[in-house]
Amino acid sequence: MKNSFVILLKSPKFMIGAILFLLMLALVLIYPQINRKDPLEMMALAFQPPDANLWLGSDNFGRDLFLELMYGIQTSIRVGLIAGVFATVIGLIIGLASGYIGGMVDNILTAITNIFIVIPSFVILILISVSINSRSSLVTAIIIGITSWPWTARAVRAQTTSLRGRDHVHIAKISGHSTPKIIVFEILPYIASYVVMAFVLQTASGILSEASISMLGLGPYNTISLGIIMNWALVFEAPVAGAWWAFIPAALSIALITFSLYMMNTGMDEIFNPKIRS
Amino acid sequence: MSNRELLIRGKDLTKVFGYGTQKTTAVDAVDFDFHKGEIISLVGESGSGKTTLAKMMMGLLKESGGSIEYKGKPRRLKSHSDRKRYWKDIQAIFQDPFSSFNLFYRVEKLLMDCIKLQGLKLSKEEQYLKMKEACSFVNLKFEELHNKYPFELSGGQMQRLMIARIFMLHPKVLIADEPTSMVDACSRSTILDMLLKLRDENEMTIIFITHDVGLAYYVSDTIYIMEKGKIVESGPAEEIILNPQHSYTRQLISDVPKIHSAWDLGS
Fold first, then answer.
1. CA quadruple B57, B62, B66, B71: dihedral positive or negative?
2. I need a surface site. Which of A132, A182, B27, B180 has the fewest CB within 10 A?
3. Secondary structure class of B13 (helix, strand, coil)
4. Nearest to B94 among A167, A177, A189 (CB)
């Protein structure tokens, strides 16, 4: 495992993605410590263009958009990571159970997974979001997580099914290891790299999903996220006012974050996927 | 051989995969009696159900029909401790040494697991000596190997380590599923000799699965010939090879050019 991590550091794609992501993370974590103002404080007129004082101008309420953006990126990344953790853990558990136990359990779990795949998850996301009264960013993240696990489950199931029939698993069985031990020590190491890749992808798509439902006005309350900034720009007609600074930086941030995560994923894929490994 | 103690008996053993139109009967109502200290060869072409039968004997696959008796009693594999007890007595070597190892752990762990399965409480030094003894039995140097990962070894070394594992476990029955088919000819005879040595030292029953009739004749006391999931002929090795009754057996023997000339003289 240590070995493959060292190889990973030599992959330019992974490093570009990782450095970009970490720089962004550092910026949004450090800047609010320097500029300790409240991001919701109104400090200028509406839709002031960027200048030396307000780096990205002001929004419809006259708030500092750069500061809002910093908090927005923080929330979006947090939502994405929590959604990624939920999707990966649920997908992993269902995939492992389905693939390793097999038989009837496999049939039932695969059916459930397929049902979740064919129902458009974004519709579920909207319906759940509408029906819940108090939405925090955590609730939104969890909703995204529990609607996006099926692809992970499916892939993990496929890998587990093929690993289950391998001789080293048989050897572990006849060496008297218990089932949980076999899953943790004989199956998981073989799919670990894949699961990490799936987690990165789920995080990226979690950020996108959050931005989408927030832009529809169904995101978390009492917080600032990239989608919410875009929602404000939409509701208060920033494009009509010609205030491009109210939505383009937010949209670019979303693009940049997902780009960095996809880059990391591609870098890992090139290393861990034997078919495209050079 | 029949005067020896009966160890494993299979009655009407059947394994069916799939259902409906996809149904395939891999093993079809097979009966067998294996005795203590006997070397049995299961011979058949690929797809004849040898490996499936072996996996059922191991308890790795559940039989669809029939029963297996171990030491005169129906075997019980319901709970984990039942299975653990069964696997103390019955062990296996698989065909592909490369996939028999977990690539993420060092060689040492494989041998440590054997000590754990036996439930032995040993000091560090005793463990070391035991592993070293097992490795020297198969002509490997434990000092050079214990820190290595499986992918740093050759196929022959891996398969010999698998035999070292069997040496440590001292099972009563060893199921060897084509243990020599993936290693070179040079390692092949060493591995066979090691298996025979194990039998002599421990009075182990060895069930040797192969597609090579010549090899089967060389090592075994009893031969079972399998075709399409059925056992078509069985009996003492001499009898089967020198005086085959079933047409499939004759075909198998004639398909081995090397033994053809050698054993034609006898008949």
1. positive
2. A132
3. strand
4. A167
| Inter-residue contact B166 to B134 (CB < 8 Å) | no
Domain boundaries, chain B: 6-255
To the nearest 10°, the Cα dihedral for B26, B31, B34, B38? -70
Cβ B267 vs Cβ B242: under 8 Å: yes
Instruction: Break chain A into its structural domains and give their ranges.
Output: 12-31+63-272
List, in order, residues 6 or more apart from B128 with CB less than 8 Å away: B142
Residues A249-276: tens digit of each pLDDT? 999 999 999 999 999 999 888 887 766 5
CA closest to A178 among chain B residues? B80
**Maximum alpha-carbon separation in chain B:** 58
B221-239 pLDDT tens trace: 999 999 988 999 999 988 8
On whether any CB of chain A is under 8 Å from the CB of B87, the answer is yes
Whether A5 has a pLDDT exceeding 80, the answer reads no
pLDDT-flagged residues of chain B (< 50): 1, 259, 265-267
Residue A169 has pLDDT above 70, yes or no: yes
- CATH fold of B6-255 reads Rossmann fold (3.40.50)
pLDDT of residue B242: 87
Look at residue A44 in the predicted model and tell me its pLDDT: 83
What residues of chain A lie within 8 A of the CB of B58, using their CB? 170, 174
Give the ipTM. Answer: 0.86
* Tokens encoding A177: 């290891």
How many pairs of residues across A and B have Cβ atoms under 8 Å apart?
51
Kindly tell me the burial class for residue A71, based on how many C-beta atoms sit within 10 Å of its own C-beta (0-12, 13-18, 19 or more).
buried
Q: What is the pLDDT of residue A182?
A: 93
Q: How far is A194 from chain B (nearest CA, A)?
A: 15
Query: CA–CA separation, B57 vs A113, rounded Å?
Result: 35
Looking at domain A12-31+63-272, its CATH superfamily turns out to be MetI-like (1.10.3720.10)
- pTM recorded for the entire structure: 0.83
